[in-house]
Amino acid sequence: MSVVPDPSADWAAGGVVALTGRADGPPLVPPGRAATYARELSDRIHELTARTRAPVQVDGAALLAERAAFTGHSRRGRISAGGVCRLLPTADGWSAVSCARPDDPALLGALVGAPLTGDPWPVVAAWVRDHTGAELAERAELLGLAAAPVASPAPVRPAASPRAPLVPRPVAGLLVVDFSALWAGPLCGHLLGLAGARVVKVETPTRPDGARRGQPDFYRLLHAGQRSVVLDPDTMSDRRALAALVASADIVIEASRPRALARFGLDAHAAVSAGTTWISLTAAGRASERIGFGDDVAAAAGLVARETDGTPLFCGDAIADPLTGLAAAARALTAPADGSGFLHDIAMTEVVASTLEHDQGPAPAARRSGTGWVVETADGFVPVAQPRRREPAGDAPGMGEHTTEVLRGLGIPAP
């Protein structure tokens, strides 16, 4: 008879517990088994690469909290660790609202119907309090805002699995073209790079990866050893170069809605028909227009720590991002047995929801032990670990540093 591991131990050892709860209170244990699932994913990635020249061995549970080890972020209750997302009461429950991008204050102004100056949160909180979660979700989707009601988890279900039979395949030497930004997609590309893939990061002149404005060493960790290409899809020559680059790719990673890619002249289904593995990362699936980031997506899926009165608190730091990045990398290390292409439609919300049980009560609190904290598990007390970091293996490329080199190397005429 197999023994089911206690997820509390993985939560505590991975560093997420230290990031969950109020700043002036004890750390809390999140619900569900996302940390255990993350560790299972990293074990799977190691299994898939163990017999290659570049085996990848990382601690998936620790990756969920790794960014905070670089930024120094800590638990802040109803404010996300990074400070850009809030849990706000609605007329019928709770919601998660993000203000992460430079354009978001203006979009929040459109949401509430008034221009916002200074601190937007008091006005936004008042508007959200007078509207239902469904009303918020509808307006947020129309405006392209990352905001959604906090869900009560549905009955636990496994994450969506591919419909075609997939088999392990080495990625050493394969070309990975990464259009994604921030954390989930870049983590996938980083893990594939550790496995020996050649990773090319693609940005546009007007929309660089927002993570470039973040903690520089964390950005270096995810992008060291990669090549950087900048192409402008508004110019015909660059559009042709983009299409040729995708045509040369073995694996494509992107985190855009299909209509946004269509404006670039890129067609995932056409690429898959030509044999490409296409990793599509979105908040709620390719059929949805919803925008989402790591913190609001996790809350929308129901991954929040509840206080005794039902008040939700953030779990970890943008936890949906690294969890999805691990899931995407594990998928990318497989392919159809006949060598054909495959489209992986990976919804961040579904990845998170698959780790949750239907009924969840108040979050268990850690206990003081000397100068630290411990969590009680089925196997005894486990110390609450702090987030920990891996060291970057080199420098990240400057934006567009390798555009000419990459295109020439692939026989693509430089724009």
Description:
The structure is a single chain. By secondary structure, the protein is α/β, with parallel strands linked by helices. The chain has a single domain, classed as 3-Layer(aba) Sandwich (Rossmann fold), CATH 3.40.50.10540. It is 34% helix and 17% strand. The protein has 16 helices and 16 strands. The chain has helices spanning 7-14, 34-49, 60-63, 66-71, 104-112, 121-129, 133-143, 184-194, 216-223, 236-248, 258-263, 268-273, 294-301, 320-332, 348-353, 403-409; strands at residues 85-90, 93-98, 147-149, 166-168, 175-178, 198-203, 227-230, 251-254, 277-282, 304-306, 312-314, 334-336, 342-347, 367-369, 372-377, 380-383. The strands form five sheets. A six-stranded parallel β-sheet has the order 7-6-5-8-9-13, with helices on both faces. Strand 15 (372-377) and strand 16 (380-383) form a beta hairpin. Helix 1 packs across helix 2 (34-49). The termini are far apart. The model has no long low-confidence stretch (mean pLDDT 93).
Provide tags for this entry:
415 residues; alpha/beta; Rossmann fold; 16 strands
Q: Reading side by side through the largest sheet, how are the strands ordered? A: 7-6-5-8-9-13
- The CATH topology corresponds to Rossmann fold
Radius of gyration: 21 Å
CATH architecture: 3-Layer(aba) Sandwich
Mean pLDDT: 93
The CATH fourth-level homologous superfamily: Crotonobetainyl-coa:carnitine coa-transferase, domain 1
Binned strand content: 15-25%
